[in-house]
Design the sequence.
């Protein structure tokens, strides 16, 4: 019931409060973002599925602006090297990435996008970046305010 009855949720045992008698506004904002994401997750998964991709494969494609060692991909996805090997195998089978040796250390395998991988990544990203109705329906002023707040939050991280 994320997003429903926020006052009750913020006064539940274990919830943090900014100060006595006031709800945790940061917690409420975060719960609302999670609710928005959750509502739109089925559409995001559907777009990925149209390309035969699962979220870890999409995340890998999105992170490959330049060739990266497999270990960096493991770090990004918070998984072990064998999982990254499985992911890269799937992407390589589809012709979306290719493996190569790092010229500085031939023991290190670099993963790079192919032209087809770049095309698929860009198409999927463009479709995922279309705002959901909850955001598209906001006024331009509200969209700008939301964007600016999120940019500031991410810049502070």
Sequence:
């Amino acid at each position: 019931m994320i997003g429903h009855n926020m006052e009750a949720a913020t006064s539940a045992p274990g919830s943090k409060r900014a100060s006595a008698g006031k709800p945790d506004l940061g917690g409420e904002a975060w719960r609302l973002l999670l609710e928005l994401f959750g509502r739109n997750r089925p559409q995001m998964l559907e777009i990925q599925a149209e390309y035969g991709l699962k979220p870890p494969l999409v995340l890998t494609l999105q992170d490959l602006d330049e060739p990266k060692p497999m270990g960096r991909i493991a770090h990004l996805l918070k998984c072990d090297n064998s999982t990254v090997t499985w992911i890269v195998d799937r992407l390589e089978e589809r012709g979306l990435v290719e493996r190569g040796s790092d010229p500085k250390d031939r023991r290190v395998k670099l993963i790079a996008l192919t032209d087809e991988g770049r095309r698929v990544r860009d198409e999927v990203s463009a479709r995922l970046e279309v705002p959901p109705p909850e955001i598209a329906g906001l006024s331009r002023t509200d969209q700008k305010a939301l964007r600016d707040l999120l940019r500031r939050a991410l810049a502070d991280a």
